[in-house]
Amino acid sequence: MASAPQALDDILSAAGPHPRTSLPNVATTVTTVAALYFGREVFLPIAIALLLTFALAPLVSALKRIGIPRIAAVIASVLAAFAALALFSFIVASQVSELAQNIPTYQTNILEKIRSLKETGVGGGFIARLSSVVERVGQEIDKQDATVPAATPDKPPREPVPVEIVSRERPLEVLQNIVGPLISPLGSAGLIIIVVIFMLLEREDLRDRFIRLVGYGDLHRTTEALRDAGKRVGRYLLMQLVVNIVYAIPIAIGLWILGIPNALLWGLLALALRFVPYIGPAIGMLLPLFLALAVAPGWSLVLWTAALFVVMELVTGNVIEPWLYGSRTGLSPLAIIVAAIFWTWLWGPLGLVLSTPLTVCLVVLGRHVPQFEFLDVLFGNEPVLEPHARLYQRLLAGDPDEATDHAEEMLEEKYLVEFYDKVAIPALLLGERDRVRGVMGDLQRRQVAASALALVANLDDDAQEEADEDDAPDVAVEGGDHAEAADEDEVDLPDGTGISVLCAGGRGELDDAAAAMLAQVLHVQGATASKAGFADMEPSSIRGLELGTIDTVVVGFLNRDSVKHARFLVRRLKRAKPALRVGIVFWSETGNDDRQAADKLAHDMNADFVAHGMVDAVTGALSKEQAVALKLVAKRRRPRAAPRKAAAG
């Protein structure tokens, strides 16, 4: 069996630092962005086809499950999707044409509202300039009408001379002018349809080739990445379509009831524009507001129209979206905005529409492929720092208030002993590790310790609330004799009523902060807990401690090289009061993984118990066992040399 110090070293060094996330170099980033920008004519159709493949794959699978052959299922799904898009485009085009014919009938109301705004002074110089421009245009039209000579009785009006316009363009040129602008979009649409069909038909083969290309050495990780990407993107597109339909139908009906012309057009545009993150709904609201301004003489219709859009956006964003899919895209709000800006710059308006699903694919890639982990760190919505690292960062910055907010957020789901054991003590261990490495100076160490003590003081109210509860908190077993128990097993901490415990730091300010945390947990358990600093544990200061009413002294060390110092400290405390129980805590992130090694270490140190976690420290401190007697250490003395006989004179 390993020796006790070696076992302690294994326990204390079990948790290593988090692996560093590597960033791509500048050349790789610039090359990738340049390729996407200059090759957008190629990459944009492929990206659209890829996203449509993700969206249609569940439909194809459903058709196959009911017995439809694969080819028929793929063709039917693709044709249905593009037929719906074509119908959508036709309805929008017809509505736009009708709107264009009716716009001149609204100019009177628009001019009246401009004049009313000018009279009330709303809008300042802009309204005045707009009104003057409209008036000058009207005066110019009237002037041209006045210059036309009127017919007189002496001079009969001239008969109009028929003019015949003869086009010199050939029929082929006319056809080219009509069809030419349509060739590019129709060609792109046809290319996308073909690519989608072949991607759906060869989906398994493409999956295997992708795995062989980037993830053959780790099939599990690559398979999870593909499954996660397909699930997230497909579900996002489907649920977003459902949400947009639920949003657009009340918009269209409401606008029709209010009397806004072409209500169907604005409903369809609201459906499409809501795929654009954040700014899409605002853009979809502008034109209906303009029409509300134009068709009615007053302002009430404008207000009702704005209220309709605002209410529907609030209901959709706060009720419907969380109910259907919540925040399952895995993107942070800032990432969505940055992605929208980037993809719009890269690929224009289509890039704006595709920004969210494309970024979801990148985040999934970063979540499962180590080489692209930086994408998940930059754009994902998961915390990038572990709780104890986040707390240590706040302590390092000297911000106990934010550290308290972080702690209280966790205490909504955890007990105080769990928070200290799993978050706060590991945070102090990070500080001790930095001190040992020489990257933390004395001033900074004292600042971290002071922030930690302020955190403990800020949590006094939470500790008192736990102390007032009838039942003691249940916490997870850390191991040792209960190694056969699962992590979800729970144990009751002992009642500390009538027990007086002194908690002290071993060798530094950070140890004092850990001792304060232990004292607060002991107070929650009903014990009379007091605190002492590491300076009080000096040989010259121990005799000055008031140990008369103290049952147990617990001394904690964050430094794993303090075994020898702790042994002498136990001896001094037991000399000061032989009936005193003395426990030593070598704080660790992993707790007591080897209880036998801890018991052997306690025996070698003449301590009553040795603990490595908060639960074992509380259990040992509140134990009612008799104190271990101080063992006398036999001193090794050199044998005295025999006295020399004096020489005879």
From TrEMBL:
The domain of life for this entry's organism is: Bacteria
Membrane topology reported for the UniProt record: Multi-pass membrane protein
Give TM segment ranges.
42-60, 72-93, 178-201, 236-257, 263-280, 287-312, 332-365
Q: Name one GO cellular component term.
A: plasma membrane
Q: Which InterPro entries match?
A: AI-2E-like
UniProt entry keywords in alphabetical sequence: Cell membrane, Membrane, Transmembrane, Transmembrane helix, Transport
Q: Tell me yes or no: is Cell membrane among this UniProt entry's keywords.
A: yes
Recorded hits in Pfam families, A to Z, give:
AI-2E_transport (PF01594)
Cellular localisation: Cell membrane
Give the protein family.
Belongs to the autoinducer-2 exporter (AI-2E) (TC 2.A.86) family.
In terms of PANTHER family, this protein maps to: PERMEASE PERM-RELATED, TRANSMEMBRANE PROTEIN
Official protein name in the record:
AI-2E family transporter
Biological source species: Mesorhizobium loti R88b
